[in-house]
UniProtKB/TrEMBL annotation:
The keyword Transmembrane is assigned to this record: yes
Sequence ranges assigned to domain VTT in this UniProt record: 74-188
InterPro entries, per the entry: VTT_dom
TM spans (from-to): 12-30, 50-71, 78-99, 140-158, 170-191, 197-215
Protein name (database record): VTT domain-containing protein
Pfam families: VTT_dom
Signal sequence bounds: none
Keywords from the UniProt entry: Membrane, Transmembrane, Transmembrane helix
Length: 224
């Protein structure tokens, strides 16, 4: 009962911070939104405005990504694509990596003190798979790259396996790198409106399908 109360309070706090960050983001991008719905504004003007944001908006987006990593059920993929749309593949990728890696690392640390995962979710099939991998460090790194495996479940598994800080840092950084860059490239392609977007999204689907196959095969080997 005490754990449930603590969990509820932390989740409420997380959602409050999330709403505050979303309002700050809306304030920062309100001129862009106004220009976008203004029929008199040219496409070039809107595109220049979207790409004109600097460090302040980047800090908000990093903080938003970090908070989403620590709230169960909140995906970061949409934020990652939005970051790529606003900052391009290079700086957008860096922002995404910083946000996802920091958020997942903080989530692991927080899970040592706060029961963010409901006890019913602790028997989740993904947690069972990830906890019995033959090569846990590789499998957990890959799991962070897969959008439909909640990152909080991966962080919970890492915390349960009692990995060292060095191992945790390696897993969250390498795990954040590919997807963060792909999301940024996808957002940039969406911004430019070219065919690259379709190719990138197709590559993501194929890549993640291969990763899921690897995780399941590795789990089967461990069980056998």
């Amino acid at each position: 009962m005490v754990q449930q109360t603590v969990r509820r309070r932390w989740l409420i706090l997380g959602f409050v911070v999330l709403i505050i960050l979303l309002l700050l983001l809306l304030k920062a991008y309100f001129p862009d939104l106004t220009a976008w719905i203004n029929p008199k504004a040219s496409k070039t003007e809107v595109m220049d405005l979207v790409r004109s944001h600097g460090l302040d908006a980047a800090v908000i987006l990093v903080a938003l990504t970090i908070v989403c990593c620590m709230i169960p059920g909140i995906p970061t993929s949409v934020i990652g694509i939005f970051v790529g749309l606003c900052y391009g593949p290079l700086f957008g990728g860096m922002i995404n990596v910083l946000g996802n890696a920091s958020g997942n690392f903080l989530a692991i640390s927080l899970l040592n003190k706060v029961p963010l995962i409901h006890k019913n979710k602790q028997q989740n099939h993904w947690i069972k798979h990830l906890s019995t991998l033959k090569h846990p460090q590789t499998g957990l790194t890959i799991s962070y790259m897969i959008p439909f495996i909640p990152s909080i479940l991966v962080s919970y598994t890492i915390q349960q396996l009692r990995m060292t800080k060095k191992q945790q840092g390696s897993i969250v950084f390498l795990g954040a790198l590919p997807a963060s860059i792909l999301y940024a490239c996808g957002g940039d392609a969406l911004f430019k409106g070219n065919i690259k977007l379709g190719v990138i999204l197709l590559a993501i689907v194929i890549l993640f399908s291969v990763f899921i196959f690897y995780i399941k095969k590795d789990h089967q080997k461990r069980v056998v």
